[in-house]
Write a structure and sequence with these properties.
The protein has 474 residues and is an alpha/beta fold. The chain contains eleven helices and 23 strands. The strands form six sheets. Strands 2-1-23-22-21 form a five-stranded antiparallel beta sheet, sandwiched between helices. Strands 18-9-7-4-19 form a five-stranded mixed beta sheet, covered by helices on one side. The two termini are 41 Å apart.
Amino acid sequence: MFRHLLRPLLFLLAALPLLAHAERLPATVANALKAAGIPQSAVAIVVQDADGARPRLTLNADQPMNPASTMKLVTTFAALELLGPAYTWKTTAWSDAPLDAGVLGGDLVLRGSADPKLTFEQFWLLLRQLRARGVREIAGDLVLDRGLIAPAEHDPAAFDEKPLRPYNVGPDALLLNFKAVRLSLLPDAATKAVRVTAEPEPTNLDITNLLKLGNNGCPEGWRENLRADLTRHAARWRLVLTGTYPASCEQKTWRIGLLPHNEYLRGVFEQLWTELGGTLKGGVRDGIVPEAARELAAIESQTLAEMVRDINKFSNNVMARQLFLTMGAEAGKRPVRNEDADAVVRAWLDGRNLRFPELVLDNGSGLSRRERISAGNMTRLLAAVWKSAVMPELIASLPLSAVDGTMKKRLNGNGIAGQAHIKTGTLEGVKTIAGYVLDRQGRQQIIVFFVNHPNARDAQAAQDALLGWAYEGH
């Protein structure tokens, strides 16, 4: 009996040094965290060979953490497997009215499919098709079929009290151009003023430019010195720009997300339709495609593989939310809600034997205070990616160290430049990375590093140190 008790005890004693090693952080990482004032209890780390089953380094791996935008890895991996890399979205124009001598004798209906990236230019092509079909005048209304996504209260100021930031735009079946206006700011030395041009130019939006030209240097956070205020006046909207813009900044671009979805689409439609020589006699309202309607024009999106690249490399929250809801819609949930998409993703995880009891999926983008996943389960997800048929598409979508996306300005000038595909995440009090490092021995390492702490903004040095440690193959 003593022998039976002794054997497991000896095994446990033998394993203790290994466990201790797994929990001991590299000195460069520990020192960087200490310098940032971040306790190790607020950190979760896993480093593991992509082909291996046991981690080389772990710390608080089972602790539920806010992953910020690394949650997009869950959304994009699920979408690539469930929808396929070649999946596309289609935006269409319909009518059940006769077309006679250029006059459409009734309503024109635009139907959305939750395209994550229906751009201003693509929308112009759709309307150009209508003109090529002979439509010049729309005698009825412009009807917006946005029924694929369930109406939901969305307060763009709720997350961080910055309602005009494009990342705070909510999802919509007819999301157009990320609901954004691109303002080009150009100092004019002759008039000592700041010229502002907008694209697109919604017909229901007036822009009042009260910007002042400054003589100071151009700071990295030049936008923080500017303010945009949006107000409604009857059927029109007014955007007032104030603040000081340094002449040394030269020409810059300022993107602002504004107007309700239907109002934005109305204004841009009227702008482009007029430029194309068309007229709209009626108003703009929500509705559905009539059963007897015929398709007059259609525009197809980029493939999902291309969409995923934009979502992950540039951490596009709006696109991620659209993709999340698309998975629910394709599973038959129409009109779709976030809860429907959540259920689809969880069923997919279960089918892959990836059970993450701590997982909280709010909207699939990571722009959330509620979302949670552990570093250990994020590692399991990345290990599953490594063995998946869609691995090439997913990994190619991740920012490449010192090369592009959100990693373009990190890890320049050393051996790891170009050797790590890393998804980043940043919120107030949250800084995260998750992805793959090709080490000096040619082995792929999975790396996950979550920080949830008020000083998280200062965690980059520690994360970069861990990336360097993994690259050296310690």
